[in-house]
């Protein structure tokens, strides 16, 4: 049985009702909705275009200006200003304020259509309202503004409740109902229960499984002001709920997830995230964030991947025979391509081989090879062999990466080292690492049976062998020596990604051990080995065996 509780606005009678359902597991998650304040009510009027076009029998431009200003004030939250443009400012102010607050509307978008003039000289401006209801979605409907010329001159909006919404009246009001949707039971790959209490980093993820990923649900009802009787449903939010007694089976592994949660303590309070997944099929074993609550940056973050992207750059160069690991590719301190590029701590390795450039993460050496790749070639390789930029169906919302074609030589130079406009996150870079290790891309998934619409080509065995050798050398003699004391023949790549001139760099580290690939980013971590290194060391130390 549900038990509604409500808050009542005595002025307009808006009621927000929460229907509580028996909880089984999990926590109710609040989903923030960000809306853009905008109004397009006749922005082209000055040019004689759009809904305020002037012609024979057309409305007075002064009326249309007033309508445009009213809609702009309403959309912009300037309710006192909007009310002052009506024939009843006090009533308008109260109704507009209670309408948006009572229905939890933030940032309406109001779009005007073509105005008309009636025989009595009044003007009507139709408009479409898109009302974002916090945490649920947008409620869209149409209404219209009546305007009348005043005896003392000028035009005002002829105030009526129905202009806010055609069904709003002296006898009917709206009520927002939110369904208190507890997260369903969620299990790991072995059937063990996963809850937000035991695994804090999964709190945001568990809410995304609710209703099969539909998230929160609710409705806006039209009710009788006097009796509260429901007269109709204006709109509903969310999809049909998955029965709470049907657990959502995930690919997560409780042991890996627990170790990932604990490893986040090595972030020293900085924003950080990591993903661990299987190399052979892309199944996600763990994802963790610091802080644990809030934004799931592990799969939805957008970061420059820095030098971890050199795995993809190296693949592109090796695929076309543009370089071999033993070729000499000098590594100077600086290289200027429109701007000055340098290595971390301005290191240099004169006469270095390409293999040495990879293990020491030499930016200038990689940039010097930019002319050996076509303008779109890096992005083409990322998409064709690594699936980056294709649409992934992970089982929860995810950002799947972007590798734009460079706009100029400076941006092309930056893209060679994972900067410029290249965007990724730990999920993407864990997948890149897995693909480099096995040669075959597998779409990452967190629920079994997720559809896969990607299409990729396996890397040649020769390229896979070269990548694995260089990544292993990066651990034994290069910038990922932080992992050198761990067993398992680990291969890795560090990364340092510039954010801005005023902020410390982000630190990255990706690694592969056996059938597991991991990736970690630490915001403002300065270097990958120094910031992400201890996190992945902790993770891999805590779980010495690969999942079966």
Main sheet specs: 6 strands, mixed
Overall 3D geometry? elongated
Percent of residues in helices: 25-40%
Percent range for β-strand residues: 15-25%
**How many discrete domains?**
3
Q: Tell me the CATH topology of the largest domain.
A: Beta-lactamase
CATH superfamily of the largest domain: DD-peptidase/beta-lactamase superfamily
Output the radius of gyration: 29 Å
The first-to-last residue Cα distance is 43 Å
Number of helices: 15
Name of the CATH class of the largest domain: Alpha Beta
Low-confidence stretches: 1-55, 210-214
Residue-averaged pLDDT, rounded? Answer: 87
Number of strands: 20
The name of the CATH architecture of the largest domain is: 3-Layer(aba) Sandwich
Which class best fits the helix and strand makeup? alpha+beta
What can you tell me about this protein's structure?
- The radius of gyration is 29 Å and the shape is elongated.
- The chain has 15 helices and 20 strands.
- The chain folds into 3 domains: 1-30 and 178-242, no CATH class; 33-168, NTF2-like, domain 1 (Nuclear Transport Factor 2, Chain: A, Roll), CATH 3.10.450.100; 254-542, Beta-lactamase, CATH 3.40.710.
- By secondary structure, the protein is of the alpha+beta class.
- The strands form 5 sheets. Strands 3, 4, 5, 6, 7 and 8 form a 6-stranded mixed sheet that branches.
- The longest helix has 17 residues, at 461-477.
- 27% of the residues lie in helices and 22% in strands.
């Amino acid at each position: 049985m549900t038990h509604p509780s409500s808050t009542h606005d005595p002025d307009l009678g808006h009621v927000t009702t929460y229907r509580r359902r028996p909880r089984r597991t999990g926590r109710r998650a609040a989903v923030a909705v960000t809306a853009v304040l905008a109004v397009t009510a006749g922005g082209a009027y000055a040019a004689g275009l759009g809904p305020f076009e002037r012609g024979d029998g057309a409305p007075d431009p002064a009326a249309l200006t007033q309508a445009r200003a009213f809609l702009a004030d309403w959309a912009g939250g300037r309710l006192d200003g909007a009310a002052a443009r009506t024939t009843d400012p006090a009533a308008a102010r109260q109704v507009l304020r209670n309408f948006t607050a009572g229905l939890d509307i933030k940032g309406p978008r109001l779009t005007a259509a073509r105005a008309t003039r009636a025989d009595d000289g009044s003007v009507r401006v139709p408009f479409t309202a898109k009302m974002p209801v916090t945490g649920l979605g947008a409620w869209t409907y149409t209404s219209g503004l009546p305007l009348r010329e005043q005896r003392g001159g000028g035009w005002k909006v002829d105030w009526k409740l129905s202009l806010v919404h055609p069904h709003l009246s002296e006898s009917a009001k709206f009520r927002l109902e939110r369904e208190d949707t507890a997260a369903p039971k969620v299990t790991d790959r072995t059937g063990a229960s996963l809850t937000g209490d035991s695994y804090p980093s999964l709190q945001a993820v568990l809410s995304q499984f609710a209703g099969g990923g539909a998230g929160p649900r609710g409705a806006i009802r039209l009710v009788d002001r006097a009796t509260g009787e429901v007269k109709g449903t204006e709109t509903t939010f969310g999809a049909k709920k998955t029965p709470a007694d049907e657990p959502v089976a995930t690919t997560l592994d409780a042991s890996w997830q627990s170790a990932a949660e604990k490893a986040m303590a090595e972030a020293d309070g900085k924003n950080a995230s990591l993903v661990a997944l299987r190399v052979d099929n892309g199944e996600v074993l763990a994802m963790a964030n610091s802080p644990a609550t809030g934004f799931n940056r592990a799969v939805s973050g957008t970061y420059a991947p820095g030098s971890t992207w050199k795995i993809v750059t190296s693949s592109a160069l090796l695929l076309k025979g543009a370089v071999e690991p033993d070729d000499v590719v000098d590594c100077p301190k600086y290289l200027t391509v429109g701007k000055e590029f340098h290595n971390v701590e301005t290191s240099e390795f004169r006469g270095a081989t390409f293999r040495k450039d990879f293990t020491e993460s030499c930016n200038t050496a990689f940039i010097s090879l930019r002319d050996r790749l076509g303008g779109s070639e890096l992005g083409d390789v990322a998409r064709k062999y690594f699936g980056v930029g294709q649409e992934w169906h992970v089982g929860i919302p995810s950002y799947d990466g972007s590798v734009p074609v460079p706009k100029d030589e400076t941006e092309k130079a930056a893209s060679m080292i994972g900067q410029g406009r290249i965007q990724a996150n730990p999920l993407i870079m864990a997948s890149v690492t897995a693909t480099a290790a096995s040669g075959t891309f597998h779409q990452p998934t967190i629920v079994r049976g997720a559809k896969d619409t990607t299409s990729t080509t396996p890397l040649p065995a020769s390229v896979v062998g070269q990548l694995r050798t260089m990544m292993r050398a990066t651990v034994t003699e290069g910038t990922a020596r932080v992992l050198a004391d761990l067993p398992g023949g680990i291969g890795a790549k560090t990364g340092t990604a510039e954010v801005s001139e005023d902020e410390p760099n982000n630190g990255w580290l990706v690694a592969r051990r056996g059938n597991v690939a991991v990736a970690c980013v630490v915001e403002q971590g300065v270097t990958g080995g120094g910031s992400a290194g201890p996190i992945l060391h902790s993770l891999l130390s805590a779980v010495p065996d690969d999942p079966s």
